[in-house]
């Protein structure tokens, strides 16, 4: 069973920065993809950024140039560096990992960490 624990959320003023961490209970080298999602009140959960097992990254347009996803395989931890934060970035941020087999898919989520950006 994979356990994911997020940390690093908090309250920050617009224009500020936060770094989120997602610590996995197992080696992250076995994950096909790792990613960050977010869910604002009254809205659906949405993808923010992903990083593949090969290290390639993808971002949604609204965070490009501001957020950076990375991972440390030695620490089994993924990060999301968030700069130039905006009030609309306020949400609960979730860590996600996906594992694929020929006939199966495994999807794991963390418990979420709150990010609040004040104007």
Content-based structural category: mainly beta
Enumerate how many helices there are, as a single number. Answer: 0
What is the overall silhouette?
globular
> What proportion strand?
over 45%
| SSE topology string | EEEEEEEEEEE
Q: Kindly, what is the distance between the CA atoms of the first and last residues, rounded to a whole number of angstroms?
A: 40 Å
Average pLDDT level = 96
How many individual β-strands? 11
Search tags:
4-stranded antiparallel sheet, 7-stranded mixed sheet, 119 residues
Explain how this protein is built.
- The chain is an all-beta fold and 119 residues long.
- The chain has no helices and eleven strands.
- The chain has strands at 4-7, 10-13, 18-24, 33-39, 46-52, 57-59, 67-72, 77-82, 91-100, 105-109, 113-118.
- The strands form two sheets. Strands 2, 4, 5, 6, 9, 10 and 11 form a seven-stranded mixed β-sheet that branches.
- The mean pLDDT is 96.
Write the layout of secondary structure elements.
Blueprint: E1 4-7, E2 10-13, E3 18-24, E4 33-39, E5 46-52, E6 57-59, E7 67-72, E8 77-82, E9 91-100, E10 105-109, E11 113-118
Parallel strand pairs: 2-11
Antiparallel strand pairs: 1-3, 3-8, 4-5, 4-9, 5-6, 7-8, 9-10, 9-11
Describe the structure concisely.
The chain has 119 residues and is mainly beta.
């Amino acid at each position: 069973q994979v356990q994911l624990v997020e940390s690093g959320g908090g309250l920050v003023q617009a224009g500020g920065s936060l770094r989120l961490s997602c610590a996995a209970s197992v080696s992250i080298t076995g994950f096909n993809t790792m990613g960050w999602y977010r869910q604002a009140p009254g809205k659906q959960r949405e993808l923010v950024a992903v990083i593949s097992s090969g290290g390639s990254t993808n971002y949604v347009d609204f965070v490009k140039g501001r957020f950076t996803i990375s991972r440390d395989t030695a620490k089994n931890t993924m990060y999301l560096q968030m700069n130039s934060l905006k009030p609309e970035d306020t949400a609960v941020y979730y860590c996600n990992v996906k594992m694929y087999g020929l006939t199966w898919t495994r999807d794991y989520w963390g418990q979420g960490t709150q990010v609040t950006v004040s104007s």
